Amino acid sequence: MSAERLTRYQQLAEEIADGIRAGLLRPGERLPSVRQTCELRGVSPSTVFQAYGQLESQGLVEARARSGFYVRAAKRATRSTTLQAAKPSGEATPVAISELVFELLGSTRDADVVPLGSAFPAPHLFPFEALARSGARAMRRLPAARITGALTAGDGGLRQTLRRRYALHGVPLAEDELVITNGAMEALNLCLQAVTKPGDLVVVESPTFYAALQALERLHLKAVEVATDPREGVDIGALAVLLERQPVAACWFMPSFQNPLGALMPPERKQALVELLARHRVPLIEDDVYGELHAGARRPPPAKAFDREGGVLHCASFSKCLAPGYRVGWAAAGRYAPVVERLKMSSSLATALPSQLALADYLAQGGFDRHLRRLREALAGQQQHALKLVERHFPSGTRVTRPLGGYFLWLELPPQVDALALHHKARAHHISTAPGVLFSADRRFTHHLRLNVGHPGDPRFDGALRLLGELAHSV
Amino acid sequence: MSAERLTRYQQLAEEIADGIRAGLLRPGERLPSVRQTCELRGVSPSTVFQAYGQLESQGLVEARARSGFYVRAAKRATRSTTLQAAKPSGEATPVAISELVFELLGSTRDADVVPLGSAFPAPHLFPFEALARSGARAMRRLPAARITGALTAGDGGLRQTLRRRYALHGVPLAEDELVITNGAMEALNLCLQAVTKPGDLVVVESPTFYAALQALERLHLKAVEVATDPREGVDIGALAVLLERQPVAACWFMPSFQNPLGALMPPERKQALVELLARHRVPLIEDDVYGELHAGARRPPPAKAFDREGGVLHCASFSKCLAPGYRVGWAAAGRYAPVVERLKMSSSLATALPSQLALADYLAQGGFDRHLRRLREALAGQQQHALKLVERHFPSGTRVTRPLGGYFLWLELPPQVDALALHHKARAHHISTAPGVLFSADRRFTHHLRLNVGHPGDPRFDGALRLLGELAHSV
Predict the structure, then answer these.
(1) Cβ(A355)–Cβ(A422) under 8 Å?
(2) Domains and CATH numbers, chain B
(3) Distance CA B166, CA B164 (A)
(4) Do B353 and A326 make contact, defined as CB atoms within 8 angstroms?
(5) Are the beta carbons of A350 and B150 separated by less than 8 Å?
(6) Residues of A in contact with B352 (CB under 8 A)
(7) Are B149 and A109 in contact (CB under 8 A)?
(8) Comparing C-alpha atoms, which of A276, A328, A296 is closest to residue A406?
C-alpha cells in the first residue's frame, strides 16, 4: 500500500488511458504485451499487471483469455466520466433523515424482496462454514477467566493481527490505537462523538452515505456538504474554501470506494486532504469499509497512510469483506484513541467475544487473502455484467458510475424520472432500491439511485435489474 | 412474579421478622416447621418456604441441615438495617465521572489483581462449555442468507424465547417491543437517548451505578439524585417532590438489587413508582440486570410488570446471569420501542449473530433455570460467608448492606476512613475495589466501598477481603 509504488503503476495506467482517450490506441487494438512494456518502460512485470488491471476495472481495456489486453469500445468508457460532481450549497444543514432511511430501507431484508437497495453483498460469497468452525474451536479452547476478563478495547490476539495487517499495508499503528467495535458503524459513531459536541459542524461528501447523516442527526450535529467527484472523490479546493469560511469540528469521508459513488481518491489527493486538515487541526473520520474490495491489483492506501499527527480516525470492519452478521469492526483513532476507548466502555462496554475469537482463529488459519481474491474477482465480474444490463435496459440519458471497487452503481437517471416514485413502483414488484434522496441532508439527488450489484450468479438480480430499467421508462 | 402471591409470602415473612425484632422469637430458637405454619396460617407449603427463604437471605434466620430454620444472633440482623438512606442535595449536577471510572476500574481485569472492584461474578459460575457447543451447533446449521438478513431488532427465535419468559413472569410484551442489544449497557444508553435531548434532567438513585452517570455525561445530560433506602430503594415521596419542582426527562433506576446498594423495592413500591411517573408522563429506564439473581425463592417482579402505558423501558441482559462476554442484552422499551430500534440501527446496526444464536440454542436446550438455581445458591451462600469476613476483619463501626440478591456488598466505613486512599493502598496489594466516589455525580460517599462477593470457593478472595479489612484499620 506504499504510495510510491502505487504512483508508479498508476502513472503508467494514466498514460495509457490518456493514449486511449486521445485516440492513439483505438477500440479493439491490442495493448503491448507485459514483457514489451517492461522493456520499454524499465518497470517490473507486476507494475505492468497492476496498471493493466486498473485500466480493466476502469472499463478502458478488457482481458481476453490467453491473448492479452484490448482497448474497449469507447462508449462504455466515456459514459461513466460524464457523471458530474454535484454542486452542494455549502450551507450548514440540520439533519433529519433517519425516518426516511428506516421507511425506505426497512424492507431490504425481507426474504421475498430482491435487495438492490441493500448494503450487503450476496451471502454465498462469504466463508460462513469456515468461520463457524473457527468460532467453535476458539470458544471451546478458551479459559473461562479470559471470557469475563476481556478488555473494552477488544481481544488482544485479534488486535495484534489487525495491527500486523495495517503494518503490511504501510500503515504503522501505535500500540494501543485499535479499539474493536460492534461493526464499523459503532466505530464511526464513537469517533464522531469523540471529536464533536452538539451543534458542531461536520463536513460530509455530496452525495454521502446515509448512515453518516443518521449519525449526525443522532448527535445533534449540522452537516455541510463538499463537492465530490464521482471518480476522484472530495474536491480539495472546495474543502479548503469551506474550512476558511467557518469552524468545522470534523470531516467524515470515504476516500476509497465511496458509498454511493464508488469514487476512489488518488493517493496524492488523499495526502493533500490529510495535510490540509492537519493544517486546520480538523480530524478526519475515515470510513474505509470497502477498502479491501478493490478491483485493481492492490489495496489503495487509506488516507490514514499519510497521517503524521494522529488526526485520522480510520474505521473499518469485516462486515463487507468476510463476516457479515458477526459485527466486528474497529477504529484506529490516532490521538483520539483513548477517548474512543472510554466512549466504547460507557456505551456498550465491549464487543462480543465469540465473534472476535472466531475471526481471530480464521485469520490465523491463513485463508483470508485467498478468500479476498475470489471475492474481488466475483464482484468485479458482476459489475461488468450489471453495467451491460443497465446500458441495455435503462432509459437513454442514464448515466452510471464505473467504480474501481466495492459493489455499488450510482445511476443518474434522466431529470424527468422521479427516483422515489420508481423506488415505490419497484417495491410493488418486490424489488428494493436505495433512492438518491437518502444521500443528502437536503434531499437532492431526486433522479438518482444506488444499486447493489454484489450478487453474482443470481438470475433474480438480472431479472430485477431488467425490470427496474423498464419501470424507469414509465415513471 | 405476580404481585399478589409475593405479597402473601412477604406478609408472612414480615410478621415473623417483626416477632424476631420484638423478641418474641429469640436467637437460637427454632421456627415452627413448614407443616405447622401451613396449618396455623392456612397457606401453602411453597408460601412458607418462600417466607423462610426471604428471612434467611435477610440474615434473620438460618437453615440447619435436616433440622429446620433457627433465629440468628441479633447483632448481624440489625447491623444491615442501620445503614441509612443518603441525603442528596436534590440539585441538578452536570456529570464528569468517566475519567475517574476509567482510572479506578481500569485495572479490575488484570489477571494478577483480585477483582473485588469488578462488576462480574466468577467465571467458573457460567456454563461456557455448553454455550460454546450451542454456538457451534447454531452457526453451522444456519443458512447463509439468514446471517446477512438478520434484522436490527435481533434474531427472531431469541426474541420469541425472551418474550415467552417475560410472559411467564407476568409481564406481557407487545409483539415488536424487544430490541436485542450489545449487552444491557447499549440497551440502557439507547433508551436514555430515546427519551432525552442534551441539557435535560435525569433522576438517578443515590448512590447510583457509575455507568448511569457515564451515560448522562456522554449525552450531555444533568443528573439529579433522589434519596434511596439501602433496603427498599427509591423514596417515592422524595421523588414526588422532585417531579413537582422541575421538568424531568427521565428516571434511570434499578428497582431490583440496585447497584451498589443491593436494595430491592417491594412490589407495592414499584407499583407506586410506575403510577407516579405515569401521572407525570416521565419515562422510567429500568435497569434489571440482577433480577434473575434473587436470593429469595421467586424472581421479584420488575417495575415493568406494573406498566400500563408503555412508559417503562425495561433493560436486561445475559451478561450477569448466564453469558458474560457474549454481549447479548435487550430493551423492552414500551411505547419508545420504535425509537430505540431506529437508534440501534443508526448506532451499531445490529447485535452479533453468533452470540445471539448460541444463547437461543442454549435456551432451547432447557438448562437455563437449573443453571440459575445453582448460581443463586452459590451467590447467596458466598454472601453469608463474605459478611462473616467483613464483620470479623473490618474496623468496628463499619456498616454493611445485606442484599436479597445480586453479589455486591456496600460498606459504609467509619467516617475517618478515606475509601479512596484505601482503594489505592489495596491496589498496591493487587486488590481492586470500587470506592464510593464513583457512585455519585458530586463525589460523595467518601468512606464507602462496593465489594464484589460473587466469587464463591476462591481462597484468594477470602484473603483479599481479610487484608482489605486490615488495611482499613490503618487508613
Answers:
(1) no
(2) 3-78 (1.10.10.10), 80-85+95-125+373-473 (3.90.1150.10), 128-365 (3.40.640.10)
(3) 5
(4) yes
(5) no
(6) 182, 325-328, 351-352, 354-355
(7) yes
(8) A296
| Cα angle A349, A354, A359; round to 5 | 110
Q: What is the mean pLDDT of chain B?
A: 90
Contact B252, B211 (CB under 8 A): no
**Gap between the Cα atoms of A428 and A107, Å rounded:** 11
Cα B216 to its chain centre, rounded Å, is: 19
pLDDT of residue B81: 37
Strand pairing report for B201-206 and B222-229: parallel
Cβ neighbours of A1 (radius 10 Å): 18
For residues A385 and A87, give the distance between their C-alpha atoms in angstroms, rounded to a whole number: 31
On the 0-12 / 13-18 / 19+ scale of CB atoms within 10 A, A217 is buried
Whether residue B1 has pLDDT greater than 50: no
Of B209, B272, B212, B210, the residue nearest B236 (C-alpha): B272
Q: pLDDT (tens digit, 9 = 90+) per residue, A352-410?
A: 999 999 999 999 998 999 999 999 999 999 999 999 999 999 999 999 999 999 999 99
| Chain B residues with CB-CB distance to A139 below 8 A | 128, 131-132, 135-136
Cross-chain Cβ contact A126/B144 below 8 Å:
yes
Cβ atoms of A228 and A261 within 8 Å: the answer is yes
| CB contacts < 8 A (A, B) | 197
Q: How far apart are CA A137 and CA B298, in angstroms?
A: 37
Q: Which residues of B touch A331 (CB under 8 A)?
A: none
Q: Where are the beta strands (DSSP E) in B288-384?
A: 312-317, 329-332
Kindly report, residue by residue over B364-375, the tens digit of the pLDDT: 998 999 999 999
- Write out chain A residues lying below 8 Å of B348, CB-based: 181-183, 185-186, 189, 327, 348
| Burial (CB count <10 Å: 0-12, 13-18, 19+), residue B84 | exposed
Dist. CA B345–CA A140, nearest whole Å: 31
Q: What is the pTM of this model?
A: 0.84
How many whole angstroms separate alpha carbon A454 and alpha carbon A382?
7
Cis peptide, bond prior to residue B207, ω within 30 of zero: yes
Cβ neighbours around A264 below 10 Å, total: 29
Q: What is the pLDDT of residue A79?
A: 38
CA-to-CA separations, B118 to A285, A433, B407, B452, in angstroms, rounded? 33, 48, 11, 6
Q: Look at phi and psi of residue A19 and say left if phi exceeds 0, alpha if psi is from -120 to 50, else beta.
A: alpha
**Rounded to whole angstroms, how far apart are CA atoms A353 and A359?**
10
Nearest to A368 by CA among A160, A131, A206: A131
Residues of chain A whose pLDDT is less than 70?
1-7, 22, 57, 65, 74-83, 107-109, 149-150
Strand B284-287 relative to strand B312-317: parallel, antiparallel, unpaired?
Answer: parallel
From B152's Cα to the closest Cα of chain A, the distance in A is 10
Q: Residue A99: list chain B partners with CB under 8 A.
A: 342
Decide: A372 and A292 in contact? Cβ < 8 Å.
yes
Q: Which residues contact A2 (CB under 8 A, 6 or more apart)?
A: A170, A301, A305
Shortest Cα–Cα distance, A124 to chain B (Å): 7
